[in-house]
Amino acid sequence: MRSGGRPVIGPVSKIRVRPVVHDVVTSRIAVGQRFIGMHEHTNTIWSTYESPLGRLTLVAGPRGLRAISFPGGGAPFEERDEATRDPGALAEVTGQLDEYFSGVRRAFDLALDLEQGTPFARSVWAEIARIPYGSTTSYGAIARAIGRLDRVRAVGSAVGRTPVPIIVPCHRVIGTSGDLVGYGGGLGRKVALLELESRVSGHEPLPALWDARQLALL
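Now predict its structure.
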């Protein structure tokens, strides 16, 4: 474990993820602060975002972004009241996602509302948010970092329930043996996200299909 209680970070040979370097950046999670662009109301709002990984459903409240769902996952917000659909209020989120998928952004700077999680789950998500771009860590390393080596299985469960994947980069958590294990969006999407970060970290060009948003994963 590194000084400061953070997980030990290492590369995934299959995905060619780069080792940690000193200039890596991690996402700043602003929990509970006013959400950029949010209207002055207390309702939950939602919108969709056409990503290279398929259509993502974004859900937010006055305190911040609450959920990102991959196709086929989460609540069917598209079938709910269109009055609560507000793409403009979520423009900051979609703009940063655009930058991430284009290889320009390595860290997110968004307000998140993660109060739906237990204190234990939130401690796991906070540790995930510290994993540097282009690197990975293991479930056991996260358990060690939060001082709960007796709850590695519970850490895995909390990782799997990360409400805002990509923003809180749970795709960077792998098995101790280096296996990719599972991912809420499917292993194909996990591989694609790790490959994206590997290419950007290595200053390699992104495939044209990323820009065209035609990544076939389903």
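The beta strands are 28-31, 45-51, 54-61, 64-69, 109-112, 137-138, 173-174.
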